[in-house]
Amino acid sequence: MMNSSSSQHQPLGVSNLFSGFTRLCKGLSVILVGGYVLLQIFPSAATYLALIPARTIPFVWNLITSGYFEQSLLGVAISTIGLLFVGKLLEPLWGSKEFLKFIFVVNFLTSICVFVTAIALYYIKREESYLYTPISGFHGVLSGFLVGIKQIMPDQELSLFFIIKIRAMWLPLIVVLISIAASFFTTDSVPHVPIILFGIYMSWIYLRYFQRKPETNLKGDPSDEFSFSSFFPEFLRPVLEPIASLFDRLLCGRSEASGEPRGQTLGGAPLPGSDPIEASRRRQRGARALEERLAAEKLSASGESGEEMPLESV
After folding, report:
1. In the predicted model, what is the mean pLDDT of the chain?
2. Membrane-crossing residues (predicted)?
């Protein structure tokens, strides 16, 4: 009887890791897997679903569909796993509606940027491969999720390959460096680089300036900890900050006279959520949510073990 109970406990403990996935993420995962299966049955589907710059007009819908269409088994596996596990963290904090809106906006803006870049490269280099290479994949949004993790819990330490511990704030930069390095060794990874770069950048633009906070009804995250230069090491920030300030003036509407962001003060007093305190609270909520999730999983595992103890003693 002891053997039967202990053998039952192990699968329950392991199953905690693979439980708690949201319905929205499961549905999107079905779309990703279904698109790959469709490609295997009908290879010509890539012509209509992937982003082919020369055919985007009149196939304008591929600016949307390309982001949910994976062309390789490895790609669909990474995208599905990443969506399910990161969605467990971000969707409860943002809400399902905002989470879905983030995915749609980042995917669409990334596709537009990739399309414009491909057209520009064609006119510069006159190589038709820029116009007719099918480009698709969820990795733009997947990379954008890392920006959300950086915003919520930048100081959280994560294990990279179960060996190296890194802070969450460096995840976007690490992914960019890995993708660029991989492009020098495999030609298949070259089209992924602009998608990852624009995915990260568009995610930052959206979260920095446009995401509405339900608790304050304000837009964006003006904290210094989420500035553009915060994605880079300290020694590069003095060079990048003057460039990044141009975006602040353009998108935040900074007043040259007062130096304060318009729309974030009322009668000379800052509105709730527009100062670094609100940013600190957001990070604390993110860290607390992660701790509560880990504690709940540990409690669930220990509770299941505790319920079986009397059976083992009998």
Report:
1. 78
2. 28-52, 72-90, 102-124, 130-149, 169-186, 192-210
